[in-house]
Amino acid sequence: MTNELTPKFNPTEVEAGRYEKWLEADVFKPSGNPDAEPYSIVIPPPNVTGKLHLGHAWDTTLQDIIIRQKRMQGFDTLWLPGMDHAGIATQAKVAARLAEDGILPQDLGREKFLDKVWEWKDEYATTIKEQWGKMGISVDYSRERFTLDEGLSQAVRKVFVQLYNKGWIYRGEKLINWDPKAMTALSDIEVIHKEIDGAFYHITYQIEGSDEFVEIATTRPETFLGDTAVIVNEKDERYKHLVGKNVILPIINRVIPILTDDHADMEKGTGVVKITPAHDPNDFEVAMRHDLPMINMMNNDGTINENGGKYEGLDRFEARKQIVADLKELGQLVDIKPVRHEVGHSERTGVVVEPRLSTQWFVKMDELAKNAIANQTTEDAVEFYPPRFNDTFMQWMENVHDWVISRQLWWGHQIPAWYNEAGEMYVGEEAPEGEGWTQDADVLDTWFSSALWPFSTMGWPDENSADFKRYFPTSTLVTGYDIIFFWVSRMIFQSLEFTGKSPFHNVLIHGLIRDEEGRKMSKSLGNGIDPMDVIEKYGADALRWFLSNGSAPGQDVRFSYDKMDAAWNFINKIWNISRYILMNAEDVSADSVSSALTKVANKTAGNVTDRWILTRLNDTVERVTEQMDKFEFGVAGHILYNFIWDEFANWYLELTKEVMFGEDEAEKDITRAVLLHVLDQVLRLLHPIMPFFTEEIFEKLPNTSGSIVVAEYPKVRPEFNDDKASEGVAMLIELITAVRNIRAEVNTPLSKAVPMLIKSEHADFFNAVSPYISRFTNPSELTIAKDLAVPEQAMSAVITGAELYLPLAGLINIEEEIARLEKELAKWQKELDLVNKKLGNERFVANAKAEVVQKEKDKLADYQEKFDTVKARIAELKEN
């Protein structure tokens, strides 16, 4: 059979070759329909330093869910893929690989080293694309971009030159964060502050021309080699007699002045502060106020330079040890007090960052930040999901410092500035004419080019580019909250500056993937999870289901193999449902399905369960679509799971067996059509989240054609709504469940027939569905009436619209039955209290939708009826 499914879901078999077929069919490209509304996403570019991690898998999964759904809904969708060059990280990785063969980058020179990096890029870009394929992401590879592409490089040069000409990019000497391992400058947000064990070293400096000393405390004693002053507070009576005098730096014997400055806190430490302007941001500010010299005492690699005297050439931490030992020998080391303190570390290499005076290129941020802040009060404001991250963005923009954009690397966009021997500098998009010009050796921060990603990938600076005109601004960005500062904010202020528009309408923020204990995944803890390993075991669909259902927007999620097992089990459940339906629909045609559904819609055919499941399907489509539009994928997944597992599989499929095992062929045809239609719609609803196996089943359905990738997304079909059928089957399910519960309580298996009485105003309905009642409850005798005598010794249950009695003489204990009913009475009282509280809330009643308020009122009536009936039954039992 062409529509046969294997007995057990095997993700490896289902997913093999599927992605390649999609690419060959070009189903991921924009539709090109000029009448369709455009919807675009540019992928947050993973860097080319290695494999995708779970964070990237989360990004790509959520974006793929969005773009697949929008594609099915008829939008003209573009999902543009790409990668960034990750300057520091990639150069470090390549240098490390060369070091294994005893080769240094300097041995090769810039050009040959860059050849090696391009080889690395090609290797790892191929790996990443293979992993994207395993994830199933539906990108348009014909538009793939890389941050060092010529088009993007042109955009980078244009932006640099324009900002320079406006005076918003400048070159100057300032204190910056220095990475001694990568030997490059870092921006503030590339520094991670970690708590480590350190110490306060208390050192004495001698007053010149006297035997008096002052005591200072520092966590970095080696920096005294760069001291150019000590300061005290002018109000500090202890040191007024010393102001204007000098101290002698120990060991190196350099003389520096004693000055007054408010930075010296009389209440902190000894009140005397050493000033090392070239290696401390606060000291730099003091030096600027007092016009102090600034002595850099460190080489690029973190070793002490020629200003360090006898310590020249030592690593900074080795120099610290020797300086402490020498100070101790001189008697000028007073004390060492252990301290736990925060120290900046390089986000890329992990080494301790060194604050260091350096000549670098900077972006002047005040005007750019001002524009970004003002934009958030306009109609063009970027919408953050969840909204609290707008505050995070605004706080950072309001407190942003000038951005150091030069990096002392070879891999990256080389700064478009040239110098000649006459000391002239030229900044331009192309090299200056004439001889004797040398380009600046530094490259730009990777985030400088990534900040242009939403529009540079669309063809900008050519504003007449078809893609730029059609798909910019982009629709939605999905990313983790950890790069709001690195990337999101920079894209916003650069886009506003150069296009006059926000780069995207929405930003969906997700959290971090943590291990089962809630710890952040890291190499040091050894708790990282490779998504490719997960896919190999469970399949991409199961991983995508877990990632989309793991948490609400902005929240962290804990990875769990138990949850992966549950995801696989869910897919296998749907697989088995599909096998059952397909085995019972071998000879069904698309036309027969359409004809049968028309009859059901016209109420000329179909039983109450058929109309019930179609009503429930409508409700599911409406609610899932609403939640997906709000990026609440976890809520949407929960709704889908409940409908598929509980209503469709556990109830409707079981109820259809009454028809499928019967003799009425016409009724069977209707039920087959409904089964196929619901399965078809379920697969379409699931497809954005779990694309592989849904395509596998979809193509085997007799009522479908083409790829599910471009199939129409489900819509509510009002003609299928049947509130009466919905309410009726809800009562039927409640009745069957109540009987099963009562049987379990008195240990009476379903195989043993027992008498059953149903007292209900809906007796006609219950009589009509009595074949279902008999099939699922096995009554020895079934009595259904609007009014009947209630047996004295009977287990009972109150359900919506009916009272159920099972006369189980000899099995029932009256006292135990009263106790059980009193618990049930308490349950209904609790439900009444909750609904009354909600309806008693004036704000809820005034602000909620009318249908929501009415739903609560309907609940109140239902609960009250059940409460009263149970209470009356308790009274009857007590009287007897």
UniProtKB/TrEMBL annotation:
Residue ranges occupied by any Valyl-tRNA synthetase tRNA-binding arm domain in the UniProt entry: 813-878
InterPro entries: aa-tRNA-synth_I_CS (IPR001412), aa-tRNA-synth_Ia (IPR002300), Anticodon_Ia_Val (IPR033705), M/V/L/I-tRNA-synth_anticd-bd (IPR013155), Rossmann-like_a/b/a_fold (IPR014729), tRNA-bd_arm (IPR010978), tRNAsynth_Ia_anticodon-bd (IPR009080), Val-tRNA_synth_C_sf (IPR037118)
A GO term for molecular function: aminoacyl-tRNA deacylase activity
A cellular-component GO term for this protein: cytosol
Any one Gene Ontology BP term: valyl-tRNA aminoacylation
Record field: catalytic activity: tRNA(Val) + L-valine + ATP = L-valyl-tRNA(Val) + AMP + diphosphate
Motif 'HIGH' region: positions: 46-56
Binding site residues for ATP: K523
Oligomer status and interactors: Monomer.
Swiss-Prot/TrEMBL domain comment: The C-terminal coiled-coil domain is crucial for aminoacylation activity. ValRS has two distinct active sites: one for aminoacylation and one for editing. The misactivated threonine is translocated from the active site to the editing site.
Protein name according to UniProt: Valine--tRNA ligase
Source organism of the structure: Lactococcus lactis
Gene transcribed to yield this protein: valS
